[in-house]
């Protein structure tokens, strides 16, 4: 690398150093101890908080549950988002594409809090969904769609969907329609073309979109707080409790650091899958 | 020489203009008060406006979502706090105000209304702004029978109908009520946890935010809300049918004012004293539905009707609450709200 190129890298390197420096400070705070009876903290440095988390079944359960919940949500985002992205990319009518893209953009423009309150009104016991189901006679009593996992899941799916769809939409558009047409001309069914041509060619984008969806899901805080009714507790809510109920900043910092490590390892797994998918696609293409 | 003279003249002129500017004067004649959004909206803003009219000291309202959130902000600015008075629960105040760097003592001599305070409303580092019981607020049109006792909440007819504060909200008082009504105490909370487990089918939501729980009651998501009478006030003002009862045992709590260690302590103390005055206490009681801490003030009739009798009131050792609340919170999350 030329010296000029190295200089150009400096701003980005400085920015990354600041971000990771902040993380390291947090990791170091995790080695302090909470001063008994006060919200303060003090030396000496120990690994006690890190070890305490690994010996706390409740904390480990919440971390495990957060990972499972986030992976499930990522899978749901792929299942719901890919057909949506495909429809936008492949529709013959420009107005349908523009309409659907417009809907996605409007969703982006709404803040997460207003979206959460929107879902509270829609999914509530006296909300539109329950009223419609009762009116059609499909149910006798309102369904419990909020203040539980289902409400949080639906709202978070709505939150992650635009990120995934917009990531994958471009990749689907980039697949030449002639390739799909050729396969159809050679006798492949529409379903076979979809699964053996379109999906493999867009696999790197699917993994990229899924990575985004997973990152958003695993760090969710407001949706579980507002729609979980106190019953859905992800790791971010657990960390919040350590800060604002137990006033144990060092322990909260230690849990945050461990949580970040776990998230980074899983994200590294996503990137590994993405690399493998990209290589596989190129191999197939010769 | 002429240039130097001109420069120094300009600097002096600028300094004079700056020192005399209305902005500088305004900044030196203002204090920042951090309290909950609901507190500001329902009563404190009116008090602050009157204070400004009388003293010329402008009160800048700063909102906090919870007192723990407010304290976190104070901690982050502890070298140069920009808040002069911080409203908190008495539990949290008892826990954090021994920090002499961040908080200043509130001398009795600085408060002309100190002799009018009800017992327990003043500590060396905080003074209560109002008191409130933990009550039951319900929609009479959504329940089949009127609620008269805590035990009613455990009836099957309230399945999926209750909004209950979580342990950190109202300083674990729901757990205390559950313990006291089932043979336990602050030193033996096991019966309380067992009873809350039995109550689970009736609980639609555990809340940490007053506004969320009020919205749920207003929309009919829940028909019963456990909280202070002040929660009912905006609903009844908006025409929602609500009834408040404060059965025995009725935990009574204070929300308190603390004096942050800033150079504006003299002005801040004036405001604290103003809040304790009969006029302000009457305003808070009428508009915010909170009990007055000035014994010369009678609670507003609407509030007086729902305040618990003195013999029904219970209070708890805040130090014990502080010592155990984190542990209770984890147990609550593991056993009750999961």
Automatic annotation (TrEMBL), chain A:
CDD domains: TM_PBP2. It comes from the Bacteria. It is found in: Cell membrane. Keywords: Cell membrane, Membrane, Transmembrane, Transmembrane helix, Transport. The chain crosses the membrane at residues 58-87, 99-124, 144-172, 193-223, 243-273. Pfam families: BPD_transp_1. Residues 63-270 form the ABC transmembrane type-1 domain. Coiled coil: none annotated. The keyword Secreted does not apply. The keyword Iron-sulfur does not apply. It is a multi-pass membrane protein. Belongs to the binding-protein-dependent transport system permease family. CysTW subfamily. This is ABC transporter permease. It comes from Pseudomonas typographi. The lineage of its organism: Bacteria, Pseudomonadati, Pseudomonadota, Gammaproteobacteria, Pseudomonadales.
UniProtKB/TrEMBL annotation, chain B:
The keyword Iron does not apply. Keywords: Signal. Residues 1-26 form the signal peptide. Pfam families: SBP_bac_8 (PF13416). The keyword Zinc does not apply. This is Extracellular solute-binding protein. The lineage of its organism: Bacteria, Pseudomonadati, Pseudomonadota, Gammaproteobacteria, Pseudomonadales.
């Amino acid at each position: 690398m030329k010296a000029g190129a190295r200089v150009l890298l400096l701003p980005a390197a400085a920015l990354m150093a600041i971000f990771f420096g902040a993380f390291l400070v947090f990791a170091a705070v995790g080695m302090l101890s909470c001063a008994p009876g006060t919200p303060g903290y003090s030396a000496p440095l120990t690994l006690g908080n890190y070890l305490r988390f690994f010996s706390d079944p409740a904390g480990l359960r919440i971390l495990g549950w957060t990972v499972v919940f986030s992976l499930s949500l990522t899978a749901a985002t792929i299942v719901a988002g890919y057909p949506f992205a495909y429809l936008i990319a492949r529709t013959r009518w420009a107005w349908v594409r523009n309409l659907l893209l417009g809907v996605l953009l409007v969703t982006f423009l709404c803040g997460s809090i207003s979206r959460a309150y929107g879902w509270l009104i829609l999914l509530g016991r006296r909300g539109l969904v329950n009223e419609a189901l009762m009116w059609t006679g499909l149910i006798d009593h309102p369904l419990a769609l909020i203040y539980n996992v289902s409400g949080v899941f639906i709202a978070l799916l709505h939150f992650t969907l635009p990120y995934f769809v917009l990531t994958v939409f471009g990749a689907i558009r980039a697949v030449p329609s002639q390739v799909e047409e050729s396969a159809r001309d050679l006798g492949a069914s529409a379903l076979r073309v979809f699964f053996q041509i379109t999906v493999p060619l867009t696999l790197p984008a699917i993994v990229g979109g899924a990575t985004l969806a997973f990152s958003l899901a695993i760090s969710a805080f407001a949706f579980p707080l507002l729609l979980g009714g106190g019953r859905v507790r992800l790791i971010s809510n657990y960390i919040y409790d350590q800060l604002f109920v137990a006033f144990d900043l060092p322990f909260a910092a230690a849990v945050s650091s461990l949580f970040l490590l776990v998230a980074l390892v899983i994200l590294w797994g996503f990137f590994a899958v993405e690399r493998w998918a990209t290589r596989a696609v190129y191999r197939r293409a010769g | 020489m002429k240039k130097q003279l001109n420069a120094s003249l300009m600097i002096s002129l600028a300094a004079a203009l700056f020192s005399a500017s209305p902005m500088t004067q305004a900044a030196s004649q203002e204090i920042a008060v951090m309290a909950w959004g609901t507190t500001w909206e329902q009563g404190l803003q009116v008090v602050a406006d009157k204070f400004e009219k009388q003293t010329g000291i402008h009160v800048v309202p700063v909102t906090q979502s919870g007192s723990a959130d407010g304290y976190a902000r104070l901690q982050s600015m502890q070298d140069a706090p920009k808040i002069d008075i911080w409203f908190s629960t008495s539990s949290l105040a008892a826990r954090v105000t021994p920090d002499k760097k961040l908080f200043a003592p509130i001398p009795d001599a600085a408060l002309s209304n100190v002799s009018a305070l009800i017992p327990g409303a003043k500590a060396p580092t905080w003074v209560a702004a109002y008191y409130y019981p933990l009550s039951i607020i319900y929609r009479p049109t959504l329940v089949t029978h009127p609620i008269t006792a805590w035990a009613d909440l455990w009836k099957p007819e309230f399945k999926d109908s209750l909004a209950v504060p979580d342990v950190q909200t109202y300083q674990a008082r729901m757990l205390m009520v559950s313990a006291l009504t089932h043979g336990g105490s602050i030193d033996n909370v096991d019966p309380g946890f067992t009873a809350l487990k039995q109550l689970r089918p009736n609980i639609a939501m555990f809340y940490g935010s007053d506004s969320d729980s009020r919205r749920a009651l207003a929309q009919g998501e829940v028909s019963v809300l456990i909280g202070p009478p002040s929660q009912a006030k905006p609903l009844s003002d908006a025409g929602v049918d609500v009834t408040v009862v404060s059965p025995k045992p009725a935990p009574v709590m204070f929300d308190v004012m603390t004096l942050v260690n800033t150079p504006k302590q003299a002005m801040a103390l004036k405001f604290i004293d103003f809040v304790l005055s009969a006029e302000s206490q009457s305003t808070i009681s009428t508009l915010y539905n909170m009990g007055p801490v000035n014994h010369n003030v009678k609670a507003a009739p609407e509030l007086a009707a729902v305040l618990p009798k003195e013999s029904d009131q219970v209070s708890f050792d805040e130090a014990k609450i502080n010592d155990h609340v984190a542990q209770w919170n984890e147990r609550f999350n593991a056993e009750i709200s999961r």
